Amino acid sequence: MTINRRTLLQGSAAIAAGAVLTGPFGRALAQGAGAAPMFTPEEGASLRLLRWVPFVKAEEEAWNANTRAFTEATGVEVTIDQESWEDVRPKAAVAANVGSGPDMVMSWFDDPFQYPDKLVDVTDLCTMLGEAHGGWYDGLAAYGQQDGKWISTPLCAIGNAICYRDSHMKAAGFEEFPTDTEGFLALCAALKEKGTPAGFPHGKAVGDGNNYAHWLLWSHGAQQVDEQGNVTINSPETAAAIEYAKKLYATFIPGTESWLDVNNNRAFLAGEVSLTANGVSLYYAAMNDPALQEIAADIRTTNLPVGPVGKSVELHQTSTISIFSHCKYPNAAKAYLEFMYRSDNMNRWIESASAYCCQALKEFAANPVWTSNPIHAPYARASESLRVNGYAGPLGPASAGAMADYVLVDMFAEAVTGQRSTEEAIANAERRLQRYYR
């Protein structure tokens, strides 16, 4: 899809019709923050962005409309390519290492740390954005910074929360949703007895699989590495997390070991499961389908239960935007991102995402989307509360490699399916982690 002046839709005219000032090529440039543009696109510039396939159609439409407004204002054409969530990571890595392909990428977690020397330094851009919009949330900022400089621009946290059928929970004998892991296990067992089971991905799901696996580990007080990056996965706490995961898995619908990010959505909306963890997109998929109104009215959301560690510990999927060093027009790329983060444009995108994308900059916590629907409440603090996947060690090539290799996801999957014993699964994860943390 190429977005340029010739394909400008009427909707983008409204987006560009706010407060304006003279842009890089003398065109009117929409400017919510009111400051002069910091970056001037190179003459004749064009850009190509690789992004993940959206789960919320209105989010994509708002992003594209803001992009069209940027093109109208600057003359810089922007092509947007989409790949599945699982395919963005390898596609981006190939582009970085061969030095060709997309100019920018919306990537996951700490993927930029796998090829930091292949990325444009965006310290000037991120410093300006932080100063203009209330500062960055610490967790998201960690995903953009390495060795005192910014290698990527934090975009959002895609909040993860329990989505469940209220009537099914009550039919299983629970008036309130359990807030602790033992009560949660009891609920899942009761749901299975009623023929309305739960289901969480144990497959290589970039978002839901990682979110679930990290919650299992952290909620029991375990961690992959310590503050110095020493591998500490082989612990009694990890064994306890696996034993708990086995009990939960026994209550699940069959087949979750092969689930990717789309599978739990499909199972829930098909009425095959009554409880899973997902982004708010699951609720809106039901809301927007006339055939699923009964399910939509029955959906409730809540945060994941608190385990033996005694506090809420959740991953939340994060996305950043990186500019590859092979980009011929780095100033145009920075100008594009500056434009997309302007107050009016970013607020429009966040609101259109309907609580799916939690802001990286604190100014946007005031967006009315977060209080517009009780369903949104568990997602509202995702950026503030998230724990980085490399916890408790530093983010870097090791944490990025371990995440991309699904070490933690595989450890739980091997154990719950009986492929390995608890001890063998931990030992295998330890061996794999030591390849990255040397």
Automatic annotation (TrEMBL):
Keywords: Signal, Transport. It is found in: Periplasm. Transmembrane segments: none annotated. InterPro entries: Bact_solute-bd_prot1 (IPR050490), SBP (IPR006059), TAT_signal (IPR006311). One of its GO terms (cellular component) is periplasmic space. Coiled coil: none annotated. PANTHER family: ABC TRANSPORTER PERIPLASMIC-BINDING PROTEIN YCJN-RELATED, ARABINOSE-BINDING PROTEIN-RELATED. Belongs to the bacterial solute-binding protein 1 family. This is Carbohydrate ABC transporter substrate-binding protein, CUT1 family.
